[in-house]
Each structure stands twice: as structure tokens, then as C-alpha cells.
Design a protein that fits this description.
It contains 21 helices and 19 strands. The protein is of the alpha/beta class.
């Protein structure tokens, strides 16, 4: 085993090793050579090479999302680092421990006209858990340091290096321990002077590694909250992004049996129960179209709103709860509590299971018509949905219905943002399907890379369900050697940003088509050929059913199924869908 001769490079590698960081995603470069040498020469690490830094960061994010432990990404100096920013922001808002390691030029070469130099320190300032800007070694390339920055040495190289080592150890401990404890991205910026490629057989540093301290919150007194819960007849539980199998079923069953509780689950919640309300928009959107909508929304308005999980997809439920605010909003999360509905009154800093373990034994079922009334409406709109889907032409809505029905059990579904996640939310998925989506920032960037990164470590067949803009935007995500033969991509291609056609203010004009909808004529066939992916394309429902029947089966290479849908019909069918199911609610009233 070899090490870089540079002390700070040794320190970073040894700290990562001590903290159990095993996976390193490396993008090529020269300035990061000392760290690349250290990680790749040590068989404790699993190293991956991905050229495009933006793709590399999302690839790492997908791995960290699955493994729920820190994954490191490593790049050279200069603008390479900036390409990590979208994934860093996603990790920050999704609570994913990404460790960004950037090699840097010496401080005295910044802003003097030297190549590949930018101001890398604190570059992720407002979207990072911690920024550790390490100090440059003076025991390495001492003559150059003494020439350009003699103040670094201050007379005695050994003493100066000792102070630098102590500082760097402290910063590395703070950053890596925070990533592990708080599930946040952190940034390690490491300046190196040349030479960069020298190796030694044994490390020259013995870093001071501080153990990770378990900062688990102690039990809280929930007596007053259980009393309020027991005296309330309208309670709503809303669940956003949630890891599969992370909430004990016995707690879900108890919530489901209370007639004063309705549980709204998003596709990303990975929670299932016959009495839970999925397809949230199927309730809210039809009510918006009724003359008596105020009466209905007042009836739906909860007195207590209990939330857990990550960010919520449904704009309609957010708009509803912001206008018809609950008296009390309680949120359960060990770290964060967003005041999404501007009425947050209590943040329980507990794991969800710990909270329910303390809370539910002291609560009782409360007599109420809340669940029964809205459950009847749910049955009505589900019946109207089936009726509508049986009579419409082939469009996005039909395509998503067929894809979800044909999706096999026990796969992992990675969903891209924008229209893909919103269409998926209109349907019920099989309970055995695991769902993930980058909802921290809800961007269309990185969906391909995230899905591939997740597929490398999750041990399941992974299916990426994506729209065309998200797919083509991250097509460089296919540029790696880690795509597994059971990886599948379902691409709904409607030749543009079709979601903009259903937004207010849409008009048929050249400006709208060019700058909002961004129409195109791109197809995925050539990309598949270039990256060795089996390609199929369908344009009607019968062909889609036929291809889906074979698509998920075994093969020696990954597959992509491109589903072409009519650009100018999709929005009309979707808008009419909500009009149609609203009639079911009217019938329920009368």
C-alpha cells in the first residue's frame, strides 16, 4: 500500500477510513492526485471513476440515499468543484450525508492569474452543514512555501507543521462527525503545492481522530399533546418523503383505526394501508372546481396536523393547508422542522418510531365522522378515475397508468421530478415497490445519475421513471462503467416540458413553445446505442402493453423504453380528468 507524501492528503484519507467512509467517487484531475493516490491504493475503499462532476455528485447522492451513510466525492481544483453544487443543495434539503472533497491550489496562487483557480473556500456557504478549509502543509514543498508565503513557516518548519496538523485534524473531525450525526453534506477543501504524485510506503502523520458521539435526544414529556389529541375530532397525518420500512407497521395500524384521523400519504412516503389516502390531489383538485368548495374545504380542515418525513410534492395540499390552516401543526424529525404551512407549533426532535412508541400508548380512538365522510369521497373519485381512464386516448395519463400496473413487485422505483412524480402521485403503487425521488430541491437535474448510483448498491432491480427534459438534461449520467444489466429506464417523451401546458398563463405562441415548454424532437435511440443500452420505442397503448410484458425480464444489458405521447393532447386530458372526477364528489353529496 502506498500513500501520498503530502501530510494533509494522508490525514484526509486516514480520517475517512477511521470514520467508516468506504465509497469514494473520483473525477479525474491533477491537483487531486495526492488524494486519488491515497484512496485508490487503500483496499478499504471502494473507488468509482466518473468524469462529469455533476453526474458524479448525484451518483454519490444515490448511493448515500440507499446506504444512509456518508459517501465521498473527490474533484480537482477550479470550476470542477462548482459542478457539485446541485447535488450538494439536494443533499442539504434531503438530509443526505455527502462528503465533498476538493483539491485546491495554494492560497498564494488564488486571484493572481494562475490556471484552474477560483475562490473554493466556503463556496457552498448557505447549503452546507460544515466547510472545513484545511491549511496547506509546510513540511511539503518547503522551498516554494518559503518563497511565496514565508509567514506560513514563521521560522520553524516542524513547529509550524505541528500547528497545521492540529488544526486540520480538528476541522476534519468537526466536518465528518457532523455528516454522520446530522445527515448533512460537508465540504473538505484541501490546498496542495506541487509535486503532487510522490508516494511513500508508510504514512508520516498520526491524526487525532475523535469518535462520533451519539447525540440522540432523550424522551420528551408528551402528556399535554396526547390530551389535546384525545380531545380533537379532526386530525390529519401528512407524510412526505420517507425511507421504505422505516416506520413500524403497528403504529400505522393504530392510526388507521381511529375514525378521527385521516392519513394522507405521498408516493414518496413508502407507507401503505387500505385506509390511508394516497393520490392526495385526487381529493383536493376536484373540490377546487366545485361551487361549494368553501364548505368542503372547511370540512376537510384539520384541527391538528401531524407531519413527518421529508418535503411534500403536492402543491394542492400545501395550498389547502396554507389557506385552511390547522390550529396546531406538529412535526416529527430528529433534525429539521419546516414551517411549510406557516403555523408550526411543535417540533418533536425524535425518531418517528420513538415518538409513536411514547405517544400512541396514551391516545385513544375518538368518535368522529371525519374519516368516514372523506373515505366515502375517496371511493367515489377512485371509481370515477377508473371510468375516465377506460375511455380516453393514448396520452401521458394512460402511459403512467400502464407503467404502474405492469411494474413488478419488489423493484426500486426512482422517479424524476416535474411531471413524472406528479403523474405517478395520481396512482396507487404496489406496497412492495420502494420509491425514491430527489425532492430536496425538486430539480430535474441528476435524476439519471442518482438512479444509477442507487442501483449500484441497493441489490434490487432499479427502474428510473422519467420525463424527456429530465432524462436528456442528465444524459451524461449514462457515461460510466457501473450500469447494471437489470437497470431499467422508462422515458415518457412528449417532446418538451409538457407540465407547463397545464400551468396558469399558458398560451399557444412561439415564445411559449420556445422558452417555457422548450419543444424538441430528440429521441433516445442514439444515446442508447452509444452507451450499450437496449432500446425500444412505442407510440400506442397496445404496443406499450406488449413491451412492458417483456421489459422487466432478465437480460445481459440494461434497457430503455421510450414512450412517445402527443404533446398537444396531454394537458387537455389531465385537466379534463379532474373535471370528470369532481362529478363523483357532487354525486356523493346528493
Amino acid at each position: 500500500m502506498n500513500y501520498s507524501s503530502i501530510p494533509s492528503a494522508q490525514s484526509v484519507v486516514l480520517h475517512c477510513k477511521a470514520k467508516g467512509i468506504q465509497d469514494i467517487i473520483i473525477s479525474p484531475g491533477s491537483r487531486n492526485a495526492p488524494l486519488t493516490i491515497g484512496f485508490t491504493e487503500d483496499h478499504s475503499f471502494n473507488c468509482y471513476s466518473i468524469v462529469d462532476e455533476r453526474c458524479a455528485a448525484f451518483f454519490a447522492l444515490g448511493m448515500a440515499q440507499q446506504l444512509q451513510r456518508p459517501i465521498a466525492v473527490l474533484c480537482t481544483s477550479g470550476s470542477a468543484l462548482l459542478n457539485y453544487y446541485p447535488a450538494v443543495a439536494e443533499a442539504f434539503y434531503s438530509g443526505i450525508p455527502l462528503v465533498v472533497i476538493s483539491a485546491d491550489r495554494p492560497l498564494y496562487k488564488i486571484d493572481v492569474g494562475d490556471g484552474q483557480t477560483i475562490r473554493q473556500d466556503h463556496v457552498f456557504d448557505r447549503h452546507i452543514g460544515y466547510s472545513a478549509n484545511l491549511k496547506q502543509d509546510v513540511a511539503h514543498a518547503t522551498e516554494k512555501v518559503d518563497k511565496y508565503a514565508p509567514q506560513y513557516i514563521d521560522g520553524d518548519v516542524t513547529e509550524a507543521q505541528g500547528r497545521i496538523q492540529e488544526y486540520n485534524d480538528s476541522e476534519l473531525n468537526k466536518a465528518l462527525n457532523l455528516a454522520i450525526n446530522d445527515n448533512l453534506p460537508v465540504h473538505l477543501n484541501v490546498p496542495f503545492e506541487e509535486p503532487l504524485y510522490d508516494k511513500i510506503a508508510k504514512p508520516t502523520v498520526h491524526p487525532e481522530v475523535q469518535n462520533v458521539v451519539d447525540n440522540k435526544i432523550a424522551n420528551q414529556d408528551l402528556t399535554e399533546f396526547s390530551k389535546r389529541w384525545n380531545s380533537t375530532t379532526r386530525k390529519m397525518v401528512l407524510v412526505g418523503v420517507n425511507y421504505p420500512n422505516s416506520v413500524e407497521q403497528k403504529y400505522l395500524d393504530q392510526l388507521a383505526e381511529d375514525p378521527s384521523v385521516i392519513v394522507l400519504t405521498e408516493t414518496t412516503s413508502n407507507l401503505h394501508h387500505p385506509k390511508f389516502f394516497s393520490s392526495i390531489d385526487g381529493i383536493i383538485a376536484p373540490i377546487e372546481k366545485l361551487d361549494a368548495k368553501e364548505e368542503f374545504f372547511n370540512a376537510l380542515q384539520p384541527e391538528i396536523l401531524l407531519t413527518f418525513g421529508g418535503l411534500v410534492v403536492s402543491k394542492k395540499v400545501k395550498a389547502f393547508l396554507r389557506k385552511y390552516r390547522p390550529k396546531h401543526h406538529w412535526h416529527i424529525d430528529e433534525h429539521k422542522a419546516y414551517d411549510t404551512f406557516y403555523v408550526l407549533s411543535q417540533h418533536f426532535k425524535l425518531n418517528v418510531n420513538d415518538f409513536f412508541n411514547q405517544f400512541l400508548p396514551s391516545v385513544r380512538n375518538v368518535e368522529s365522522e371525519y374519516f368516514g365522510y372523506w373515505n366515502g369521497i375517496r371511493f367515489e373519485y377512485e371509481a370515477k378515475r377508473a371510468e375516465y381512464l377506460a375511455c380516453i386516448p393514448f396520452t401521458d395519463l394512460v402511459a403512467f397508468k400502464q407503467v404502474i400496473e405492469f411494474m413488478p413487485n419488489n423493484v426500486q422505483l426512482q422517479i424524476a421530478n416535474s411531471s413524472a412524480i406528479r403523474y405517478t402521485q395520481l396512482f396507487n403503487l404496489k406496497p412492495t415497490i420502494e420509491v425514491f425521488c430527489n425532492r430536496g430541491t425538486s430539480g430535474i437535474d441528476g435524476s439519471v445519475s442518482t438512479a444509477i448510483g442507487a442501483s449500484v448498491v441497493n441489490g434490487k432491480q432499479t427502474v428510473l421513471l422519467t420525463g424527456d427534459l429530465s432524462f436528456f438534461y442528465d444524459s451524461n449520467g449514462l457515461w460510466n462503467n457501473y450500469i447494471k444489466s437489470n437497470f431499467r429506464i422508462i422515458l415518457i417523451n412528449n417532446d418538451g416540458g409538457g407540465i407547463f401546458r397545464i400551468l396558469p398563463g399558458k398560451e399557444e405562441s412561439q415564445i411559449f413553445e420556445t422558452y417555457f415548454e422548450t419543444t424538441h424532437n430528440l429521441k433516445a435511440m442514439q444515446l442508447c446505442e452509444m452507451h450499450g443500452i437496449e432500446y425500444r420505442c412505442v407510440k400506442d397503448e397496445n404496443s406499450l402493453k406488449n413491451e412492458l410484458g417483456k421489459f422487466f425480464g432478465g437480460s445481459t444489458i440494461s434497457k430503455l423504453l421510450e414512450i412517445r405521447t402527443p404533446r398537444k393532447l396531454n394537458d387537455k386530458i389531465l385537466i379534463e380528468y379532474f373535471d370528470f372526477i369532481s362529478s363523483g364528489i357532487i354525486n356523493y353529496i346528493h
